[in-house]
User: Fold this.
Amino acid sequence: MKRAERLHALSEMLRRSGSSGCTAERLAREFEVSTRTIKRDLDALEHSGAPIWSRPGPGGGYGVAARSSLPPISLSPAQAVALLAAVSAAPDAPYGDLAAAGVKKIIDVLDPRTRAKADQLARRIWVDSDRPATRAVRSALEEAMSEQRTVRIRYTSRDGDRTARDVEPVIFASTNGRWYLIGWCRLRDAMRWFLITRIEQATVTQAPCSGHTIEEIGTPPATAAPLFTDEDH
Assistant:
């Protein structure tokens, strides 16, 4: 059995075991591998995002959190490299660090042959991108957007003017290779675009957003689209 197949079968067995779980020794016997190999497989599943739990001591073992879904990972080398290239070429994209971590989890559980081919193909792609905004700024903007809370920023305009503003985040937008935060600026009492690389400091406040909508930004150009639409599902 290939490792990718074993990982999928392992996750299915853990799910069927319910709240009682399975010991590493029992799993090793089931799949005819060593206990050490099973523990490496469990680590790989956990790193891929699987909600694996462990319970030490007598009657302990491993299991999967209830109502979870563990679909099998099946990617071609080109698909794996495409994911790597996409996140590497856009280091300043919102939630970029989370995307990179997610891709790494997927790559880690590929079968060895696919992983080797992906590694070879990845060597044929070079990425040279602009320096992104600091991690602290990006984290604050991402949290403010996710939680829909006002973010206090220190911003430098194209003309070099520095201002402190409270902004209600509405969307992130990418155009011409640059990422912007678009939101309701309480200083100007209007919707404004902020180039993320010009945001020097950002702090999430406790103030909730007041309900400004995407429609207030205006009609997007024909070439613009959200990451997901109803047609994608």
Notes: Residues 135-232 form a domain with the SH3 type barrels. fold (CATH 2.30.30.520). Helices lie at 3-16, 24-31, 35-47, 77-89, 96-108, 112-122, 135-147.
